[in-house]
Amino acid sequence: MFAAELGLPLRFIELMPLSRTEVLTEENFLPVGEVMRRLREKDYLIPQSNRREGHGPAKYYWLERTGALVGFVGALTNVDFCESCNKIRLTSDGKLRPCLGDHLETDMKPALRPEINDAGLSVLFLKTLKQKPAEHSFHTNYQPRRVMTAIGG
Fold first, then answer.
1. 123: nearest Cα among 106, 100, 98, 103
2. Domain boundary among 48, 63, 82
3. What are the angstrom distances between the C-alpha of 89 and each of 7, 9, 142?
């Protein structure tokens, strides 16, 4: 396995409704539980509960036979997904977005132009972090306003 040979973690990420809404259908949705089931047919998954590669919401396992470290990001099927999410994104147009599954964005440009205002950046950043929702809105008919390539990631 390529990732195991290079000592790299391999992450499986469920398709999320972050582009056109018609993209996410039952036909093209592969839950991480199904990926885990398929891997278990060929190898033994050893939970790595203390492992936090990149300090994100992935749950990691060692594949005993191959020695690969695999992570699973199940934003739609893992009910505890948001509890471990610590991600925040800066969009290419200067907006800070604390959750992919929520439309909240804070415009950071006022603290960056015409010159960088460190105190202003800090205030905007902390304000946005405090507004990070406890859960994403993917389960409540979330309709994306931006495609993932416009958000970053």
1. 106
2. 82
3. 27, 22, 18
β-sheet with 45-47: strand ranges across:
10-13, 69-73, 59-63, 45-47
The residue range of the domain holding 104 is 87-151
Which pTM value belongs to this model?
A: 0.73
Same domain for 68 and 100, yes or no, is no
pLDDT at residue number 19 = 67
What's the number of domains the chain is made of? 2
Tokens representing residue 35 in the block = 């990926």
Same domain? 7 vs 52: yes
Final residue before a domain boundary, out of 31, 51, 82: 82
* CA atoms within 13 A of residue 60's CA, in its CB half-sphere: 18
Q: What is the pLDDT of residue 80?
A: 78
Q: What is the pLDDT of residues 68-79, one digit of tens each?
A: 999 998 888 887
pLDDT tens-place string over residues 43-59: 999 999 776 666 678 88
Q: How far apart (Å, rounded) are the C-alpha atoms in residues 45 and 92?
A: 38
Sheet holding 106-107, edge to edge: 89-90, 95-97, 106-107
